[in-house]
Amino acid sequence: MAPSICAICEVVRALIIRPKNHQKLCKACFIAIFEAEIHHTITTTSLFSPGDRIAIGASGGKDSTVLASVLKTLNERHNYGLDLVLLSIDEGIKGYRDDSLETVKRNAVQYDMPLKIVGYDELYGWTMDQVVEVIGKKGNCTYCGVFRRQALDRGAKMLGINHVVTGHNADDVAETILMNLLRGDLPRLARSTSIMTGDESSEVRRSKPLKYAYEKEIVLYAHHKKLDYFTTECLYSPEAFRGSARSLIKNLERVRPSAILDLVRSGEDMARLVPEAVTGISQCKIQKVSLSSADDEDTSGCGTNGRSGGGEMADMEKKLQADEDAVGREVDVTAKTSSDNDGLHTDAVLLKLGKKTGPKTKMVKKLTRQTLGTCRVCGYMSSQEICKACTLLEGLNKNRPKMEIEIDIKDEESSIPRIKMEGVVQAGG
Amino acid sequence: MGSIETSAPTCIKCKENASTLQIRSDNICQSCFCQYVTTKAVKRMETYKTRGSTKIAKKMLFPLSFGSSSACLLHILDQHITSQYKRMNRAAFELHVVHVDLYLDAVDRKGSAELLEKYKTRFPRHTYSSIGLEEALSLDTIDWSSLGLLYPPDVESEKPAIERLQHLIAAMPSATSKADILTTLLTRLLVSVAKKNDCEATIFGDSTTRLAEKTLTETAKGRGFSLPWQVSDGISTYGVAFNYPLRDLLKKELVTFSSMISPPLTKFIIRQEPSSHISASSKQTTIDDLMAQYFESVEENFPSIVANVVRTTSKLQPLTWEETNSCGLCGLPVSEGTDGIFGWGGDQNSDSRVNREHGEQGILCYGCSRSVNG
């Protein structure tokens, strides 16, 4: 076969098949179009104004490294007039974060940008290593994600910056849309699709300039620009198999390359179809789901981990079944209850009977209107009265002194915090 | 059901018979299982109860695909109508059963005609008809010029319709696009059949699993905007209501049901090949295939998640645009000022655009535009 010529410049031999639309391009044209598209996103959404100070949430991974590199390039090329700063979070994971932070430190030199590193220990009094000691290796990604989101806000505030950009790409957005459909979480689906969260009045705005950029193109760009980034997966990801939604997206992309973009478009359109007062999320679901899902943007930086693993789906399934049972019980109370102790039940039935489903039924119909306010405890942005980070911290801190006596005193079960209970359930499932 | 072990738990519903089946995680006997399936479906038809002195039965279009779900639903509704007649000598609704031939091959068509005869013999109470998908080409509700094809199917009308349909499908850029346009044509054809026969609603046999599958398929095809019209009961922009009485039942439950009832429906059902062998690297694989495969596995382990997807999607509300255009192909409302796959945030570079060689196009929605333009 004769070598293909680049579809754009029609001069140079094509070396790259563009993942987004399978266009054959030369290296220079690919880099140019990748940058031009991000410039297009930034200008059409009026993401920045001249003189803005912008913190780039930098993990040392490919997405944030490409974001930093592209923003620097575009800022100089198109005179955005931005003051760019790298902002990194030190979760306190030995052997992982200390290495990736080295990458960020090199990036700071390479891109000539100031770097601020904020540690979980100074913000929350807990490093991730310590959290894992308590929570175990499963389910800790939730903590990490929730803590990180707020850590970026706090870090930005320390720097006097009110706009944080993150490296979320089109694959991440598409994945969030699918995940929230599977979770049945319309409010979060609606919020996750917009390029910007918060507005001029918010203390810290967040945006994702790579929202329409394919992950594969980000990798290609990083490769061809020879960017210095860090690829090792987080240590605390024993369930690092690709989440259900993520592997589905990869397959969809193979069958129809536009699928990722089409998913993003669907999400944007569906966000407008979500009724203003979104109904039907029971109180118990809110607690569960919001705990397990970190936040709108999920746990960027952990790559594929922790958000859509089988464990989470299994938990959700249990939760939903319990709700269904509770509803069913209310409807036909007469159907059962008698002759329950004839010893013929399977474990599953016994287990279910043991669950207290009664009080949940009443809350099923509760309306949940989500508005952005501030956390009563720490004062940071939150849609709940007490933000997720503080809720999680409360559990952790309660847990700290109790750890040792737990094994001895069995009948204190009821007073063991929920979070600990969840850990047990997850480890079992 | 073969011999029942003495240790088999008692049915959780009737507390008498030994259980042989499970609904979600409850052990249940065969007769209670059939009761459960029937009740779930009939309950959904309560909207069409006879009220007061209305003696005239409402006409419903019933598309029959020969799959497990529509076969089960026909059985259930047939029994329901029969018992209504027995009780009060009238029924709330009557069914016009239609089978749309998606296969263009004469041999396949003969086979489906014979199968439809079997249905007529088993459920003789209803009106039956069958129609080939190529009939959709003569629908005046579709703006064929909007497709921007060199040879729109309505122009070369001297050629046989089947051949023109084949040309149209062949002109689509991918397997997913082909499947997508076939689905769209099917829907539009059914609506026109419903209207011609004065049916006030169309009763679809989609199970929970199928509706969840559809939700994610349409989302992945860029048709998120259309979901309120695709999975909700009652809402339709076409002037004919769509209803999904099996929306609370899983696919696997219906498959079981079809073999439980007596005589079983097994011989009336054309089973689809299990989707487990579908590979994402095949050129023939569609997004629809991938989603079917995905939900087959989710249904197995996480049935409540499947149901939750459908419940959630049903909460989406259709947009009410002040001024709306309709998509030339699927007919759904398109918001003012949009241009198919072009002219939105994700359309970032005019160099990447597909050339539109065939002059001015009409209005297409994002999903149809994607299918036509690739």
Automatic annotation (TrEMBL), chain A:
<dbReference type="InterPro" id="IPR032442">
    <property type="entry name" value="CTU1_C"/>
</dbReference>
<keyword id="KW-0808">Transferase</keyword>
<dbReference type="InterPro" id="IPR014729">
    <property type="entry name" value="Rossmann-like_a/b/a_fold"/>
</dbReference>
<comment type="function">
    <text>Plays a central role in 2-thiolation of mcm(5)S(2)U at tRNA wobble positions of tRNA(Lys), tRNA(Glu) and tRNA(Gln). Directly binds tRNAs and probably acts by catalyzing adenylation of tRNAs, an intermediate required for 2-thiolation. It is unclear whether it acts as a sulfurtransferase that transfers sulfur from thiocarboxylated URM1 onto the uridine of tRNAs at wobble position. Prior mcm(5) tRNA modification by the elongator complex is required for 2-thiolation. May also be involved in protein urmylation.</text>
</comment>
<protein>
    <recommendedName>
        <fullName>Cytoplasmic tRNA 2-thiolation protein 1</fullName>
        <ecNumber>2.7.7.-</ecNumber>
    </recommendedName>
</protein>
<dbReference type="Pfam" id="PF01171">
    <property type="entry name" value="ATP_bind_3"/>
</dbReference>
<dbReference type="InterPro" id="IPR056369">
    <property type="entry name" value="CTU1-like_ATP-bd"/>
</dbReference>
<feature type="domain" description="tRNA(Ile)-lysidine/2-thiocytidine synthase N-terminal">
    <location>
        <begin position="54"/>
        <end position="233"/>
    </location>
</feature>
<dbReference type="GO" id="GO:0002143">
    <property type="term" value="P:tRNA wobble position uridine thiolation"/>
</dbReference>
<keyword id="KW-0819">tRNA processing</keyword>
<dbReference type="InterPro" id="IPR000541">
    <property type="entry name" value="Ncs6/Tuc1/Ctu1"/>
</dbReference>
<dbReference type="InterPro" id="IPR011063">
    <property type="entry name" value="TilS/TtcA_N"/>
</dbReference>
<comment type="pathway">
    <text>tRNA modification; 5-methoxycarbonylmethyl-2-thiouridine-tRNA biosynthesis.</text>
</comment>
<comment type="similarity">
    <text>Belongs to the TtcA family. CTU1/NCS6/ATPBD3 subfamily.</text>
</comment>
<dbReference type="GO" id="GO:0002144">
    <property type="term" value="C:cytosolic tRNA wobble base thiouridylase complex"/>
</dbReference>
<feature type="domain" description="Cytoplasmic tRNA 2-thiolation protein 1 C-terminal">
    <location>
        <begin position="373"/>
        <end position="404"/>
    </location>
</feature>
<dbReference type="GO" id="GO:0016779">
    <property type="term" value="F:nucleotidyltransferase activity"/>
</dbReference>
<keyword id="KW-0963">Cytoplasm</keyword>
<dbReference type="GO" id="GO:0005739">
    <property type="term" value="C:mitochondrion"/>
</dbReference>
<keyword id="KW-0820">tRNA-binding</keyword>
<dbReference type="InterPro" id="IPR020554">
    <property type="entry name" value="UPF0021_CS"/>
</dbReference>
<keyword id="KW-0694">RNA-binding</keyword>
TrEMBL record, chain B:
<dbReference type="GO" id="GO:0032447">
    <property type="term" value="P:protein urmylation"/>
</dbReference>
<comment type="pathway">
    <text>tRNA modification; 5-methoxycarbonylmethyl-2-thiouridine-tRNA biosynthesis.</text>
</comment>
<dbReference type="InterPro" id="IPR019407">
    <property type="entry name" value="CTU2"/>
</dbReference>
<dbReference type="GO" id="GO:0016783">
    <property type="term" value="F:sulfurtransferase activity"/>
</dbReference>
<comment type="similarity">
    <text>Belongs to the CTU2/NCS2 family.</text>
</comment>
<dbReference type="GO" id="GO:0005829">
    <property type="term" value="C:cytosol"/>
</dbReference>
<keyword id="KW-0963">Cytoplasm</keyword>
<dbReference type="GO" id="GO:0016779">
    <property type="term" value="F:nucleotidyltransferase activity"/>
</dbReference>
<comment type="function">
    <text>Plays a central role in 2-thiolation of mcm(5)S(2)U at tRNA wobble positions of tRNA(Lys), tRNA(Glu) and tRNA(Gln). May act by forming a heterodimer with NCS6 that ligates sulfur from thiocarboxylated URM1 onto the uridine of tRNAs at wobble position. Prior mcm(5) tRNA modification by the elongator complex is required for 2-thiolation. May also be involved in protein urmylation.</text>
</comment>
<dbReference type="InterPro" id="IPR014729">
    <property type="entry name" value="Rossmann-like_a/b/a_fold"/>
</dbReference>
<dbReference type="GO" id="GO:0000049">
    <property type="term" value="F:tRNA binding"/>
</dbReference>
<dbReference type="GO" id="GO:0002143">
    <property type="term" value="P:tRNA wobble position uridine thiolation"/>
</dbReference>
<protein>
    <recommendedName>
        <fullName>Cytoplasmic tRNA 2-thiolation protein 2</fullName>
    </recommendedName>
</protein>
<keyword id="KW-0819">tRNA processing</keyword>
<dbReference type="Pfam" id="PF10288">
    <property type="entry name" value="CTU2"/>
</dbReference>
